[in-house]
Design brief:
Radius of gyration: 23 Å
Strand content: under 5%
Distance between the termini: 25 Å
Oligomer: single chain
Number of helices: 11
Largest sheet: none
Number of domains: 2
Order of helices and strands: HHHHHHHHHHH
Helix content: 55-70%
Shape: flat
Number of strands: 0
Structural class: mainly alpha
């Protein structure tokens, strides 16, 4: 009898995926609390390793280190909750380094079974964690400037997706008989552009969303007004508002038009993939991946619109902002999952000498 799936080595990267998801949610919580600058230095927080920093201690820190002044100025004081949100995010990012190291040591020790490709992926996971930590430091140094926030979220998503890829690689070696592996070279060749294009599109849209949410300190969220229909789906009461001299409106409309373009691409690719699945008689999971990505996009459009519609005199339902982030990241990772499926199936055909079978289980 083989080991229970819960006792297989592949469970470690799966646990890492869960930890990475928690860290992303913690980062999103910082955003909705508007606490991204609540720890002005790095890796310490107001010169300490604790989150309980009194207003007096904050004042003393600013007097000693005025060069750390953030966008709110040295007169601003942060609450314990705001500081805690940033502090716990950093702590979780540090803690995950331990299982990431164990993950590498484990697959390196078992490299004869899992192969060099899995070892290389585990190394990539470690490198991406270091780069992610560096991106976090950059956001602190540059006071959460929009491009740094987009970089931070992008690195977090790539880090998480790479762990998912390692999990899939290991499960294949462990004998998982997933239907997507059993496909044909002709199908993979004809579908490659659709999977890679869809994955890239939703990833770019996620980056664009991070840029919008952080530009001008996040104050452009009300650039198109609020409520239905003036704030959404219209912008200031018009589907094509005047952009002249209105940077906030420009940012909003770039995001909205980007979402429309990506959505159209996803719908077309998902429909084409269903036809190809039938044509080549391969597993339906190939079409399901793009259907899920498209579903996430539709759901996120509704959540993003609700964020504007249900705002009240500048008071936005920030929990919807967090949900918008989570769904956006989920869409990006699912889009990348299609690319992972394609790569793993292609590798399997190469190993088998291009003797894949066309079947639909």
């Amino acid at each position: 009898m083989g080991k229970s799936s819960w006792r297989m080595p592949s469970m470690l990267p799966l646990a890492l995926v869960a930890m990475a998801g928690i860290i992303i949610i913690a980062g999103g919580t910082i955003r909705i609390l508007d606490a991204g600058e609540s720890c002005p230095d790095w890796p310490k927080c107001f010169g300490k390793y604790t989150f309980v920093i009194s207003e007096e201690e904050q004042e003393a820190f600013w007097e000693e280190f005025p060069e750390h002044e953030d966008s709110r100025g040295i007169e601003h004081r942060y609450t314990v909750l705001e500081i805690f949100s940033e502090w716990i995010h950093r702590l979780l990012a540090a803690i995950i380094a331990i299982p990431v190291l164990i993950n590498f040591l484990m697959v390196y020790k078992m490299r004869e079974k899992y192969g060099q490709k899995v070892v290389n992926t585990s190394i990539a996971v470690g490198i991406l964690l270091i780069l992610q930590a560096a991106a976090g430091a950059v956001t602190v140094v540059y006071d959460n400037v929009d491009w740094s926030v987009a970089l931070h979220l992008s690195m977090a998503t790539i880090f998480t997706a790479t762990i998912v890829y390692q999990y899939l690689q290991m499960k294949v070696v462990e004998g998982s008989n997933w239907s997507f592996i059993k496909t044909s070279k002709s199908f993979l060749q004809s579908s490659k552009k659709r999977f890679y294009g869809s994955g890239a599109a939703v990833f770019i849209l996620m980056i664009l969303g991070a840029w919008v949410s952080s530009t001008a300190g996040g104050n452009y969220n009300q650039a198109c007004s609020i409520g239905f229909p003036d704030g959404w789906p219209a912008c200031r009461g018009s589907l094509l508002p005047n952009l002249k001299g209105e940077p906030g409106v420009i940012v909003q409309m770039v995001h909205r038009f980007g979402a429309v373009i990506v959505g159209a691409l996803l719908v077309i690719n998902a429909n084409k993939m269903r036809l190809k699945v039938s044509e080549f008689a391969v597993a339906k999971v190939w079409a399901n991946v793009l259907d899920f990505v498209t579903g996430f996009w539709i759901l996120n459009v509704a959540v993003g619109g609700s964020y504007i519609i249900f705002a009240n005199d500048g008071d936005f339902p920030e929990w919807l902002s967090l949900l918008h982030l989570v769904i956006g990241v989920s869409a990006a990772i699912t889009g990348l999952l299609g690319i992972m499926f394609h790569k793993i199936a292609s590798d399997a055909l190469t190993v088998a000498g291009d003797s894949g079978v066309e079947e639909d289980e």
